[in-house]
């Protein structure tokens, strides 16, 4: 009887040890949000300021980093610029290399036409995202390839608050 009890205790301790290791892995924290809906996102590149609105009310605002060549509109793949104009949230990545990420619909038809006319590749995959490995060691504020970078805790809030289809206006 004592032997069976010992096996049971050791087995339970093993399960607790395994569960403890699993809880130490770094996973994105998925927050819930039950406040007013975010009706638009505005990004002001020159000020490095993002605002989440519900109607005319600012719900939250964040500072951010941009691409490694932040001035001007994105013209082609690899230029290090962040696009300007009206876009929409069209996807999210819960397993992003950059903690969590919220995608915008770049390139839109206007972007594709401009790149085609210039004979350059338009690029893709513009996100609002967390820091990831590069952001944690970046010495410069603007380090992305054209995305908008916030802290990991901030992208957790944004990921919870901003839904697919939300307009994102990016100003110079």
What does this molecule look like?
With 172 residues, the chain is of the alpha+beta class. The chain has a single domain (34-171), classed as L,D-transpeptidase catalytic domain-like (Beta Barrel), CATH 2.40.440. It has four helices and eight strands; from the N terminus they run αβββββαβαβαβ. The protein has helices at residues 2-23, 109-118, 132-137, 152-161; strands spanning 40-44, 49-54, 57-63, 85-93, 101-104, 127-129, 148-149, 167-171. The protein has an eight-stranded mixed sheet with strand order 3-2-1-8-4-5-6-7. Strand 4 (85-93) and strand 5 (101-104) form a beta hairpin. The longest helix has 22 residues, at 2-23. The termini are far apart. Residues 5-25 have low confidence and may be disordered.
Read across the widest sheet, the strand sequence of neighbours is 3-2-1-8-4-5-6-7
Summed up, the domain count is: 1
- Per DSSP E runs of 2 or more residues, the count of β-strands stands at 8
Helix/strand order, N-terminal first:
HEEEEEHEHEHE
DSSP helix count? 4
The CATH H-level superfamily is L,D-transpeptidase catalytic domain-like
Which spans of ≥5 residues are poorly predicted at pLDDT below 50?
Answer: 5-25
Distance between the termini: 75 Å
CATH architecture: Beta Barrel
Query: Could you say which overall geometry the principal axes of the C-alpha atoms support?
Result: globular
Beta-strand portion reads 15-25%
Average pLDDT, rounded to a whole number, is: 86
Q: Kindly report the CATH topology.
A: L,D-transpeptidase catalytic domain-like
Structural class: alpha+beta
CATH class: Mainly Beta
Described by strand count, sense and barrel closure, the largest sheet is: 8 strands, mixed
Estimated helix fraction = 25-40%
Evaluate the radius of gyration.
21 Å
């Amino acid at each position: 009887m004592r032997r069976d009890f010992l096996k049971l205790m050791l087995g339970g301790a093993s399960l607790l040890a395994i569960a403890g290791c699993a809880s130490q892995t770094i996973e994105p924290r998925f927050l819930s949000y039950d406040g007013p809906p975010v009706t638009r996102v505005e990004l002001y590149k020159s000020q490095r300021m993002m605002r989440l609105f519900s109607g005319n009310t600012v719900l939250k605002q964040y500072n951010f980093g941009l691409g490694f060549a932040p001035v001007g509109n994105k013209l082609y793949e690899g230029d290090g610029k962040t696009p300007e104009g009206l876009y929409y949230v069209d996807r999210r990545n819960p397993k992003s290399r950059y903690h969590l990420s919220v995608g915008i619909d770049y390139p839109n038809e206007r972007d594709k036409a401009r790149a085609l006319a210039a004979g350059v590749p338009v690029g893709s995959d513009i996100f609002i995202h967390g820091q990831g490995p590069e952001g944690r060691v970046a010495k410069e504020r603007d380090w992305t390839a054209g995305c908008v970078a916030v802290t990991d805790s901030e992208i957790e809030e944004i990921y919870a608050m901003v839904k697919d289809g939300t307009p994102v206006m990016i100003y110079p």
